[in-house]
Amino acid sequence: MNGARRRGQGFIIHRREVSGVSGFETLDRPRLQVEFEADSELTDALVTRESNRNRLPPLVSDKLKTVVLDLDETLVHSSPSPPPETYDFMIKPNLYGLRMNFYVSKRPGVDEFLEAISKKYEVVVFTAGLEPYASLLLDILDPKGLISHRLYRDSCNRSSRGRFIKDLSMIGRDLERVVIVDDNPKSYSLQPANGIPIKRFEDDMEDRELEKLGVFFQRYCDGFEDMRDAVKQYWGGGGGDDDTMSTQPESSIISSQ
Ligand SMILES: [Mg+2]
Fold first, then answer.
1. Short-list 162, 247, 237, 227, CA closest to 197
2. Could you list the residue ranges forming a coiled coil in this record (predicted)?
């Protein structure tokens, strides 16, 4: 590859001559091909805002702490058709003008977990999923309205690599009093001390991660004014490790996390 040059803004432009016929092209003379490649030195530092919709309404009580929960592979796993062997419910969101089927499996213990923590915390779901998909899913997952607020993809920031980043500093809560639980630690890379990585859930019905988290929120956090100290002591510092890093493709239609 020749002609590589840095353009700034996190991209390198590669220019090269290619020949031959490909796809619908009929030209057989060499032509110039221009490719953009993310500059790995800069990419994750470059973050853009998608919208201003991520500021939550004021807390109903100053005493409340906030638990921010990711959705896909944290609370549920959903897959488009064909249907898996077992699933809990189906939704049919309209995405980009297409009606699609998603078969949703709830993570073991999710109902009990939401019921328990919502008595003590403000519960927010912050997902990189699209609103038409996630809102339908949450309507069924949370019929009692235990989740106080929902933030969707348009509340995420975007890195130049296309990752969706959940910036907790923009939601209007004191960061001492916020914890985020997410199967992808990269999504909270702007505030790693506030994050609890959780094992990615797909179809393991023996999974007990939400049970463990329930113990943390119900019993362990009481002694801490700053939730980041509780995270650090209980989970060893947050920020995640390789075992909890998501291997999901970064540009799935419903979520890149
Ligand atoms: Mg996730």
1. 237
2. none
| Each residue's pLDDT tens digit, 138-160 | 999 999 999 999 999 999 999 88
Catalytic positions are 70, 72
Find the domain containing 234 and state its range.
47-244
- How does strand 157-159 pair with strand 31-38? unpaired
Do 110 and 34 lie in one domain? The reply is no
What are the tens digits of pLDDT across the range 45-80? 445 555 555 689 999 888 899 999 999 999 999 999
DSSP H helical segments within the chain, as ranges? Answer: 110-117, 131-141, 209-215, 227-235
How wide is the angle at C-alpha 106 spanned by C-alphas 103 and 107, nearest 5°?
A: 135
| Alpha-carbon span 59 to 46, nearest angstrom | 30
Q: Whole-angstrom Cα distance, residue 49 to residue 187?
A: 14
CA of 179 to the centre of ligand 1 (A): 15
d(CA 176, ligand 1 centre) in Å? 23
Do 67 and 22 belong together in one domain?
Answer: no
Query: How many whole angstroms from 182 Cα to the centroid of ligand 1?
Result: 6
Q: Identify whether 257 is part of a domain.
A: no
**How does pLDDT run across 166-199, given as a tens digit for each residue?**
999 999 999 999 999 999 999 999 999 999 999 9
Flag whether 239 is in a domain. yes
Name residues whose C-beta falls within 8 Å of residue 239's C-beta, 6 or more positions apart in sequence: 185, 192, 193, 195, 197
